[in-house]
Amino acid sequence: MSAPTSETPALALSGIEMHYGFVRALSDIDVHVMPGEVVGLLGDNGAGKSTLLKVMSGAHRPTHGTIAVHGTQHTFHAPSDAAAAGVQMVYQDLSLVEPQDIATNLNMGQETLRTGPLGWLGFVDRKAMRKSSEAELDRLGVRTAPMSRPVEMLSGGQRQVVAIARSAIRVNGERGGILLLDEPTAALGYEQTRNVEALIRRMADQGIAIVLVTHDLPLCYEVADRMVILNRGRKVADVPVAGTDRDHVVGWITGSRASMFPAATPA
Q: What positions does the domain ABC transporter occupy (predicted)?
């Protein structure tokens, strides 16, 4: 596992609460991820994982609490605000345009235009995009199909790799960014899962901070440095993966084990 490369968290959420009317989906959540660290976000259905991920990605604005990226406080009104701050989200549906080729999907929204009058008219330079895409995937250590192959012809594992790589390319700047992964190995076979695991670790080794939401406990033990466990909208555990008993993790997830952070007793 890679060690954090800075004393300042890449992403830090403090006192996060999310209310939907009288329903409190998240209650006083503190969570952070360091550069180059993989944090597994675990919990049963309804624990608040998806809601917290949406707060991190800018899809939901919390009722209370603060969000800081590399020590600078931000207010996310939309996912575009989070993306501008260096936070990228990979959803379960992947958001790929299947009839288009790999290179086009990797450059979606950031296309390279041709030079001269054709560029002024909005014509894209597909050759340049394929070349730059190959270079970016080489840097990530990704081996997939030719850049000209349509996404609809890829396997499920290859599509997942393309979606993750697209976000990694966008956040992997000089200081590194934050990548949020929602169940990245759901419905993948063993070999495809291993490929995604290897990609996650390579991205972390390059300084990208990663939050991994998963129900797959073996995946968490394979790639994560630390686990944050939610139960009914509260953080009940925040522990290193190494040395943490799996039965304890299951107990925190199901609620049969007491929280590490008991609620304060009213005076």
A: 11-257
State how far the Cα of 36 lies from the Cα of 25, in Å rounded to an integer. Answer: 29
**Residue (of 37, 66, 81, 45) closest to 179 by Cα position:** 37
Residue 75 predicted with pLDDT over 90: yes
CB-neighbour burial class of residue 82 (10 A; exposed 0-12, middle 13-18, buried 19+): buried
As a 3-state breakdown, the chain gives helix, strand, coil percent values, each rounded to 5, of 35, 25, 40
CA distance readout (Å), 188 to 36, 216, 219: 25, 11, 12
Domains and CATH numbers, the chain: 11-99+155-254 (3.40.50.300), 101-149 (no CATH)
What is the reported pTM?
A: 0.84
> Tokens at residue 121, please?
């008219």
Neighbours of 15 (CB within 10 A): 12
Highest mean pLDDT (candidates 54-58, 154-158, 263-267)? 54-58
Tokens 């609490």 — which residue? 65
* pLDDT per position as a tens digit, 144-183: 778 888 888 888 878 878 888 887 777 765 456 899 998 8
E-assigned strand segments in 59-183: 64-69, 72-74, 87-90, 178-182
Query: CA geometry: angle at 158 spanning 143 and 172, to 5°?
Result: 65
Using CA atoms, how far apart are residues 223 and 244, in angstroms rounded to an integer?
A: 14
